[in-house]
Each structure stands twice: as structure tokens, then as C-alpha cells.
Request: fold
Amino acid sequence: MKLKGGMLYYTLFLMIISITIITLLIMRGYIFSKIFFDSIKKDELERNVASAFKIYSEVPDLFLNRDSCSLDIYGDSSAIVTLKKVKWGCYDLIEASSKWNRSNVSHIGLFGADMDRGEDLALYLTDSGINLSLSGKSLLKGTCYVPEGKIKSASVEGHPFAFKKITEGNVKSSNKILPEIDPEVPLTIQSLFNDISYTFTLSGIKSNNIHTIDNSFYNKTIKYYDKVSVTLSGMNLKGNLIIKSSGTITLDNSINLENVIIMARNIIIKDGFSGSFQGFALESINVEKGTYLKYPSVLGLIQDQDSKLTGSNQSVIVNGNSIISGAIIVITDDNRGFVSISPTAVIYGQVYCNGSVELDGELFGSLYCNLFSFSASRTNYINHLLNAIINFSKLPSCFSGIEINNQNSKKSLIRWVN
Reply:
């Protein structure tokens, strides 16, 4: 009997071990199949989100009169993606998210107008009754809209036009007014200047010895404000941040900026600065020598029509050996805004000024203005270019800019920001 009892216990033990092993194998198979299935579903969600971004790129009117929408990717309710749009300075922040059970995929991208698919527009100079003249080694490459559709050669300050061919591209007649910039751009910037919902002070950053602020675009925007002028130095500021001053903001070359918005009456960018940001001022922006504003930086002067805070001499000055990759925008009610691009300065992207431009450097992209002007030997020259270069073909591929006259109504990704 003892032997039989021992055998019984031994048999029960083997059964328990066998059941445990079988159960573990079943659980293992279930877990692995669930992980595999979840991985497949997550890949599917990623593809759905990517498809939604592609649809938005081709059909940006999805957000017409609304800031969110839902896309049924396959038309059978099996793949629903929610899109949300927020204006971030001159560009669009697009968030796309898709869910399945407990799985969620979400990405945020910064988008602009796709300049690869628009007209290869190098220059739009409004018709003020004064023809454009080229002197020295001036070069225009791309489609040019100029007064009467004519460009002349001339000798200025002893520099005759150096080439046989006036332009490399089509020349067309311009209108008396500039093509309209995306109306959301000035409205967004004006609303930012009028916004008073700032809860943190710039002095608080320094007093608390804060060196790094990195705020995700999934979070609420963090806003810093000070009434007095301030110099920003020795910090790392990144992401969903707005820095505003009623005075002057000076950006030292020791500060690192990425994707943030800077707002002030005046902005000074010190020599040797390197970073990417969107800077908007009411009166002036001065870019000192040897700076590098990385893509997709924006320098903008937008006249505040409501508060009339602007001065009489609104200007963006870009000094020598500086590189700006992005856009420069000057929009004033009286068309007295001014952009100066010094010799050895290089702009990649767009310059839009409803006043006058002094172009002594190089612009690889598109320029829109009412007048060209510069002074030499006590003489003011209007609509003359001397040793200036505007070359659309050297604009980097996949460059996204600001929509102008619906020429670039398609959108393209600038960068992921999540």
C-alpha cells in the first residue's frame, strides 16, 4: 500500500508538473502571439498616421475653418486618424494620432509650404513705374516678375553689367501690389503680441539658476515675459516656448535655441550666434556678423494695427558673413519697412518685404519687394542691383517656406518635433 501511495503521489507530482509546463507553454504562446499581434497593429497605426500626414500635405484645406478633423483612411471605419492643427509662428504644427484598444500612436510635425512644387520664382518686384537695372556681377536665375516685364543693364559706380545674358529664366510683368502672404501669418503674430496670458518672468529664469528648458509640443505652451530689456545667455531653450519682452531681447552667442518663438520691440542677435527660432519684432531686428540661423528660422516685423506700437523705421539688418536659412518677413501699413542684406551675407529661403530691400549679398530662393534701393557716392539708386545674386535653383530640395499667393498651396514636412 505504501508503494501504491508513493506511486500516487509521484503520479500527481508529474501531472502537476506537466500541467504547469503545458500552462506555461500556452501562456508563452499567448503572450508571444499578443506581442506579435500588438506589434502588427502598432505598425498599422504608424502607417495610418503616416498616410494622414500625406493626405494633409496634398489637401491642406482639410482644416478650412476648423482646427481639427478625423480621417477615415480606407473608408470603412477601420482606420480613423485624428488630425489637429495649431499655428506655430509662420508654420503649421500638425498632430496626427490613431488608437486601437490600448495602443496609441501619435506624432507632431512642423509643416510649411512646399517650395519644390510651386513656380521657380526668384523675384517679384512690384511695378512702381521704375524698371529694374542690373550692374556688375548681378545674377537673376529663376522666374522674375518685374515692371513692364523688362530688365535692363546699367553701369553703376563704374561697374557695368558683366554678363551677356540679363537673366536665366522667364521674365514676366508684375502688378502694382505684391502677392498676398498667407493671411494667417500676420494675424497669428499680431495675436501673439496682443496676448497677455504670460505667467512666468524672464528674471525668474535667471534668479532660479535655470539652464535648460525643454517643453514638448504635447504640453501646454510655456510663456515667459518681462517689461524690461533682457539678454539671454548661457541657456538651452527648446520646444514649445514663447519668450517675450516689451523692450529689447538680445541673444548672446552662448544661448542655444531650437524651435522657440522670440518676441520683442527690438531683437539683437549677437555675432557668432547659432540656432533655430522664429523672432518677431515691432521695430527692428539686427543680425550681427558671423551668425547662423538654422532652418527653419524666421525673422519677422509685422505691424500691429491695433495697438500701434510700431516705430517709423522698421528694419531687418543682416550683416556680413551671416547665414539665414528660413524666411525674412516685413509687413507694414505704410510700406516703409526695410531689409538690408550685406555683402557676404547669404539667405536660403524667402524674403518678403512690402517696403524696400538693399541686396548686396546672395539670396538662394525667392524675394518679394516693392523697391530695391541703395546709396553710394551721395547718390540714391532705386531698382538697381549691383553685384547682387538671386538664384532659386540653389534653394535646397525639400525646402518648406511660407505660402504666398497660393503659389505653394501644398505642404511638406519641415521636421518632427515630438
